[in-house]
Design a protein that fits this description.
Layout: E1 3-11, E2 16-24, E3 27-35, H1 44-55, E4 59-63, E5 68-73, E6 76-81
Antiparallel strand pairs: 1-2, 2-3, 3-4, 4-5, 5-6
């Protein structure tokens, strides 16, 4: 399949994360991830740690509708919804 790529930006709790992404077919990979280093209170710290663990491995992309997207791998999953 065609490979697409660009810059990625994420925020799960307190910190901002950035890196580069590439998407090929149904696989999304994020590389060269950097982040701010603020300490987060719970439960944001756990949520952030779990989200970053998913981003650090290639993810399978699955659209469940035109607005809902799930990124999944062995570390877990991230569910996203496009705002109208």
């Amino acid at each position: 399949g065609e490979t697409r790529g660009g810059r990625a930006g994420e925020r799960f709790g307190c910190n901002h994360f950035g890196g580069h992404y590439s998407a090929s077919g149904e696989t999304l990979t994020v590389t060269n991830t950097t982040s701010t280093l603020m300490g987060c209170p719970e439960p944001a710290a756990t949520f952030e740690r779990e989200g970053l663990a998913v981003l650090q491995q290639p993810m399978t992309i699955k659209w469940s509708s035109g607005r809902r997207l799930t990124l999944t791998n062995g570390a877990g999953s991230i569910a996203l919804e496009r705002l109208p």
